[in-house]
Amino acid sequence: MVSVFDVASYILQKQGPMTTMKLQKLVYYCQAWSLVWNEEPLFPETIKAWANGPVVPDLYWAHKGRFVIAPGEITGDPSSLSKANREACDSVLAFYGNHSSQWLSELTHLEDPWREARLGTPFNDRSPEITHASMAEYYAPL
C-alpha cells in the first residue's frame, strides 16, 4: 500500500501548485473512490473530520504553516502508485480537480461521511475519524 505522501505527491505532479486545503480534499476523495472502485484503501493513514472538512493529520503536519504547496514540497514517491491507484486518482482529479478548495470543502460538508463523523462534535475538536466503512457506504451508490 502506498502512503498519503505518495498520493499527495502524485496529485501535485499532475495538477501543479494548489492550496493545502485543496490537496487535503483531493487526497480524501482519492481514498473514498479507491474504496469503492478498487475495494481497498489507497493509503493507511487516518482521515479526520476537522471543521473545514476531511484532513489527513499526517499530511497536515507535513505542510503546516503553508497556504500553497507545489510539486516536490511533499516527500512522497508518485511512481509507487499502481496502475489501479493512478486510474482512481486520475478519475478523481478529472472530476474534482478544477474546483476550488472552498467548493470542495463545502461539498464534503454536504456528504454523510464528514457530517456523521462531526455530529455532536464541538467546532474546534479535531478528533472524529472518518471511517473507511462510512466512505464506502456513502460513495458506492453514487
Please supply descriptive tags for the structure shown above.
mainly alpha; two-stranded antiparallel sheet
Description:
With 142 residues, this protein is mostly helical. The chain has one domain (4-139). Helices cover 54% and strands 7% of the residues. It contains seven helices and four strands; from the N terminus they run H-E-H-E-E-H-E-H-H-H-H. The strands form two sheets. A two-stranded antiparallel ribbon has the order 1-4. It has a two-stranded antiparallel ribbon with strand order 2-3. Strand 2 and strand 3 form a beta hairpin. Helix 1 packs across helix 2 (20-37), helix 2 crosses helix 5 (101-110) and helix 2 packs across helix 7. It is globular and about 40 Å long. 37% of the residues are buried.
Q: Order of strands in the sheet with the most strands?
A: 1-4
Uncertain segments of ≥5 residues (pLDDT<50)?
none
What count of structural domains? 1
The coarse overall form would be globular
How far is the first residue's CA from the last residue's CA?
25 Å
Tell me the radius of gyration: 14 Å
Quickly count the helices. Answer: 7
The proportion of residues forming helix, as a percent range, comes to 40-55%
Question: What's the helix and strand layout?
Answer:
Layout: H1 4-15, E1 18-19, H2 20-37, E2 48-50, E3 53-55, H3 57-63, E4 68-69, H4 83-96, H5 101-110, H6 112-118, H7 132-139
Antiparallel strand pairs: 1-4, 2-3
